Amino acid sequence: MRIWDLHCHLSGVDGDTPSQRMDQLLSAADRMGIERICVFMGMEWAYDPEPDELRHQNDQVLEALKGREDRALGFAYLNPAHVKASLAELKRCVEEGPMVGVKLWVARRCNTPEAEEVITRAAGLDAVIYQHTWLKLGGTPPTAGGGNLPGESTPQEVAEVASKVPSARLICGHTGGNWELGIRAIRPVRHVPIGIGGSYPTRGMVEMAVRELGAERIIYGSDAGGRSFATQLAKVMGAQIPNQDKELILGGNLRRMLEPILTRKGIRTE
Questions:
Q1: Which residues contact residue 158 at a Cβ distance below 8 angstroms, ignoring those fewer than 6 apart?
Q2: d(C-alpha 10, C-alpha 13), whole Å
Q3: Residue 190 belongs to some domain of the structure
Q4: Considering the entire predicted model, what is its pTM?
Q5: Bridge partners of residue 3, in order along the sequence
Q6: Does residue 135 lie in a domain region?
Q7: Mean pLDDT, each 10-residue run in order, the chain (270 residues)
Q8: Which domain holds residue 67?
């Protein structure tokens, strides 16, 4: 099967430079038979990065991509708390640069006007937008008992913004963490797939997603180096679903979603 990994990071990987860390990621990917990986965010994370830090993290990904364009694709890390700076990074890294997608994390909820402006602009470039989502116990802001971060999006909010900006190539990242609720929350918005990376390889997760959403709306990713390629692949490889569904989840769906921007940039998928 042709495996493309939606969700990889330079953090949590050995190496003193972005290039060294990328080599480590690709070495591990080779052992798992993974053809291409998508990479976003720098060597050290920031929850709410200032414009200079945002640019610095994207520069590290750009450095890591050099000479590895046939194996790795980059997503620009943007922060809707700084709309002007984020739009400038979108232009630099995606419109005029080699990146093919956008990563939105926890600085602003995706249904805020600021995030919607960034999402709308990214949609105009055919960029794939990976929106981190989570559903934590407790209130917001976080308390001792848990709860989402103040700017942390939920699958319900992804569904809301996807309905307002239907041209956006949004992915509901992590399926909300609580995947039983996340799958149901995103189900009505039929053009939005889920990313299944970054949680334990729990039995039944992929089977439920196929049953409720269809295999065409599920995208494999690992969240390496925070998670291992092997455990995340196990979610799909061990699922009781047909092989043709596994082929879609492990790479076919991501390639289809990326096809417009890859074609625009002249990037071959074979």
A1: 110, 131, 133, 170, 172, 186, 189, 192
A2: 6
A3: yes
A4: 0.96
A5: 34
A6: yes
A7: 97 97 98 98 95 98 97 98 98 98 98 98 98 81 66 96 98 96 97 94 95 98 96 96 98 98 92
A8: 3-265
